[in-house]
Each structure stands twice: as structure tokens, then as C-alpha cells.
Amino acid sequence: MAPNAMNFQLMVCATLKSRAPSEANRQRAQQLAWRWISQKWPRLISGNMDLSDGRLERSYPGAQLTVVTADQGDRWMAEVTEVARDSRQWRTQLVVAKGVDADVLALHTGCSQTGSAPLSVAPPKLLAAWTEGLDVHDANERAAGEPLWVTDESHVARFVDLLLSGERALPVITLANKGSSRYYGVDPQALAKAMQGMAHVACVNQEARAPLAQRIGLALAPTPGAARIYAPGLRQHASSHDHPLVRQPPAADSSRPQGSGSFRQMIVRCVCAVSARGVACALPQRTPE
User: Which of 34, 224, 226, 249 might form a disulfide with 256, Cβ 3.0–4.6 angstroms?
Assistant: First the structure.
């Protein structure tokens, strides 16, 4: 069966905005996307890459690339489908588009979900390349791959503004320390770097946790040593089911590898699942025929 004929389950979704909209800015975003595609699928980037007629197609057995420009060049879309070694089929879609007051950069990755082995998902490196190469924001916070530190009342007010912002498109991973220690269950710096362009990472200390709980509800408050994932669209006193809490597996759970690395992987998988709900995704179901 051809890759495009499969039903794909969305695995990763991210939407970023660059507040310096211009044709040059969008071209830079496209160049970074091309570089990423060429590194992952070098055989698809060869020969004549002329897009003057608005469409480009490349393929080899098991992989296909389609690129389309539309709206007089204001919207650029790329789609790569490939068959992995385990016979699963993956589809990655990218969009660089002119928005009302910002350039919009979006990415979807989906999988056919065939096979029984667990899926390994992670933020595509293109997201970090976009945040490093362009002035990219989510709501009022820059997507920079650095933790946000919430340590007093003024920080809480700004953090709540981010959490409740209707413009927020990325999940927020919130860590809380235990007592007076700086133990968050996982290295905040390493996690923020791993999730760059995919999610914010915030560290809430004990002094800030109580006023934060008062603002958003105790059921949604961060828990020491765990990770609370706030999905976009958060409302005060919302159901905690929609904003999951990821806890470290018990030491007696021999089915899971122990250590902060495995806990970080659990957080990454949960964030990807939250993003895949499609709350803030801005891509079409398919690249136009």
C-alpha cells in the first residue's frame, strides 16, 4: 500500500510564530526546513529543485517528498512520507506561512501505527533550528530552550498569564522542587534543551507553588519531583485529566529502566501525546494535490 493511502495517527504537533514577519524571514524558515529535510532524507534532495511552477515532487522506494507554494508565495508546504524498517509508515508535514501579524511555522508528524513494538517519539530537530535561527515566540514568551524560573509572586503572575493565554500553542512542562533542595526529578536545563520549540519548561519553587495553586486550583498545581504538563487552552480550575501529571516510576517497577534519563523520556512522550490532540495545530490534513 502506498504511504499516502494509509490512515496516520498524529504523534507530534507544534506551531510557532515569528514576530518579525517578512518575505526574507519566511525564506529563512524555508531554508532551515530544507536543511533539515536534506539531513534526514538526503536522497530526496537532488537534481532540479526548481519550485517556479509552485510544486515539486521527489521519490525513491519507500519515501516521497512533495513541496507546494500557494497564495502567491505566502504559504509554503512540504510533506515527506516514508516506510521505516519496522514497516511503519510515517508522514511529516511542514508549513511556513504569512499570518496576520506574524509568520507561522508549523509541523506535524504522524504514524500508521502498524506493528506491536512501542513507538519512539521525540521533538524533531527542525523545531530547535527554527527557534535558534528566527525570532520565535509563543504567547508572550520566547521559545529559547531555557527554563522559566518561577520563584516569587511577580513571577507567578506572569507565569499564570502564560498558562491561561489564548495565544499559547505549546505545552508547558512544570517542575517543582522538594523542600529546600534543587531536586526537580529531572535536569531542567537538559529537558528545556531537548524540548526546544516543542514545549516550555518552568521550575516552580516552594514559595511560588502555594500562590500558583490559589490562582489555578490545587488539583492543577505542580507536584514536587513530578512534571505537570499544561496543554494549550488551560482554564482556571480545569480538569487535571487534560493537563496530566507525570511521576517517576517506583523503584520496584522492574519493567522500566530507572534514572532521570528514563523519567525525561516519559515526559517527552507525554508532551508529544498532549501536542497531538491538535488543539493548536495549523496544518492541513494533506498537502494539496
Answer: 249
Q: Kindly give, in sequence order, each residue whose CB lies less than 8 Å from that of residue 72, ignoring residues fewer than 6 positions away.
A: none
Q: What nine digits make up the cell of 3?
A: 504511504
Q: How many CB atoms lie within 10 A of CB 165?
A: 16
Confirm if 211 and 258 have CB atoms less than 8 A apart.
no
Q: What is the pTM of this model?
A: 0.87
By the 8 A CB rule, do 177 and 224 touch? yes
Greater model confidence, 209 or 261? 209
d(CA 87, CA 112): 9
- For the chain, the first-to-last Cα distance in angstroms comes to 18
Q: Which secondary-structure segment (H or E) carries 146?
A: none
Contact, 15 vs 104, CB < 8 A? yes
3-state helix, strand, coil in the chain (%, to 5): 30, 25, 45
Q: Are 48 and 12 in contact (CB under 8 A)?
A: no
Q: What is the mean pLDDT of residues 165-183?
A: 89
